[in-house]
Amino acid sequence: MLEKLTPLAESEKSLVKAEISALKSRLTSQQQQIKQAKLPVIVLIEGWGAAGKGSLISDIILNIDPRSFTVRSTTPPTVEESRHPFLWRYFKEIPEAGQFLFFDSAWYGETIQNVMCDGLDGKAYRRRIDSINAFERQLTDNGYLVVKFFVHIPKKIQDERFEKLLESENTEWRISKADKRENRHYKEYAAAWDKLLDLTSPSYAPWHVVDGSERSKRLQVYRALTDAIAAALAARKDGQVPQCDPPTEVFPLLPMPRLAAVPLGQQVDDADYRVRLKEAQNRLKDLHNRIYRQKIPVVIVYEGWDAAGKGGNIKRVAAALDPRGYEVVPIAAPDKHEISRHYLWRFWNRVPKTGHITIFDRSWYGRVMVERIEGFCKEADWKRAYREMNEFEQELHNWGAVILKFWIHIDKDTQLARFNERQNTPEKQWKITDEDWRNREKWDQYEVAVDEMLQKTSTAYAPWHIIESTDKKYARLKVLGILIDALEEALREKE
């Protein structure tokens, strides 16, 4: 791809300055339209050391209101960042609607360093490419504009610029050890970049390879950026968000029964429950210590009918865990900062680090249940979400996480009895709301949605477990047993 660079013709060079000025004015005007259209824009600048990436970003942002953009310069991951999935620190940074985010290098620069210094290759490299392409496709499908530039200079120019920067102690700091290594192995790095750019230039987020000479690079970047913004704004004006062609990957789905076919008569007597609960919690306590030592992350998702017993179930699991090593995340309606970003953003933010457990009390599956039924997102959004959520969980699995998803299940009559008990018991009235009663009226619609969710998102790496909960004691023991089995299996594979 680097050979595809087209230098400016002599006839163009005299017009560069005037055109850049006009394009800057265009960008300033577009900034207000971006805000009004609530279009989030991610601009990624990659390229060679000393190619001028930083000065390029500095030039661009002078045309934008400082309240409308953020700049992130990517450095090697910290110890804390290394304990999360690869995409975690980048997904956390995505902008709100109507805002710009500029990356001075990002997931591509880190990938190249992993290839050249850490031996990333083969299956792991292919998996990284798939993760990057899925990430950018999800952003685009959810209304983001992703514009990517690679600033290219030949080795001779890099040599000259390095030499000049190293002449002064005031500028030599700008040449890192990684930059020097890149310069020494320029051909190898060029081959690695060529391969990476070729594999990550889909129609929805194509690469723009620009000439690193001072004037021409600015012209090419301003042209490409303002044209991309204009196209995205025009699509929004027509009420269209570009949808990428869905990938052909098939997820390893597990067969799941319909909710109506699940028997709900299981019970356990009180004496047996107390003995088995204590045994299970002691076992889980020991496993928590071991997964912490082995740095195995765990993600537990609870979904289910209102009044099914999710809270009490979570409480019995959490009682066995070291409070320093787990977090329970209750999910309510998104706040204004969450709703103005990709819907998975708030969940990426709560992914546990290695060795820790995160328990989600409701989750990203709201997209295909409440948001679907209440009309909080478009039909295309929730239909696409099945794949996006499978990809999210696949990313966590590939990172090494144990993922368990529980649907806490009761029948309609049991729910009514529990609603009435809450309504008639003063100390429990806070548990019942008007929204609970409204949701109950849509039970049949929710059952259809849940059945489809279970069928389309129960994968071999992130299975759904339907937990019969007409007897809450039985449900608690079943969850603990499934969790214990999964952690023991993960430890066997690790140890």
In short:
With 495 residues, the chain is of the alpha/beta class. The protein is 52% helix and 12% strand. The longest helix has 24 residues, at 214-237.
Structural descriptors:
single chain, 495 residues, alpha/beta, Rossmann fold, 2 domains, five-stranded parallel β-sheet, 52% helix, 12% strand, elongated
CATH architecture classification name of the largest domain? 3-Layer(aba) Sandwich
Structural class: alpha/beta
Q: Which CATH class of the largest domain is shown?
A: Alpha Beta
Instruction: Report the portion of residues in β strands.
Output: 5-15%
Query: What is the terminal separation in angstroms?
Result: 43 Å
How do the helices and strands line up, and which of them pair or pack?
Blueprint: H1 10-13, H2 16-37, E1 41-47, H3 53-61, E2 69-73, H4 79-82, H5 88-91, E3 100-104, H6 107-118, H7 122-141, E4 145-152, H8 155-165, H9 177-184, H10 186-199, E5 207-211, H11 214-237, H12 270-293, E6 298-304, H13 310-318, E7 326-330, H14 336-339, H15 345-348, E8 357-361, H16 370-374, H17 379-399, E9 402-409, H18 412-424, H19 434-441, H20 443-457, E10 464-468, H21 472-494
Parallel strand pairs: 1-3, 1-4, 2-3, 4-5, 6-8, 6-9, 7-8, 9-10
Plain-language structure description:
The chain is 52% helix and 12% strand. The chain is of the alpha/beta class and 495 residues long. The protein has 2 domains: 2-237, P-loop containing nucleotide triphosphate hydrolases (Rossmann fold, 3-Layer(aba) Sandwich); 263-494, Rossmann fold. A 5-stranded parallel sheet has the order 2-3-1-4-5, with helices on both faces. The chain has a 5-stranded parallel sheet with strand order 7-8-6-9-10, sandwiched between helices. Helix 12 (270-293) packs parallel to helix 21 (472-494). The longest helix has 24 residues, at 214-237. The model has no long low-confidence stretch (mean pLDDT 94).
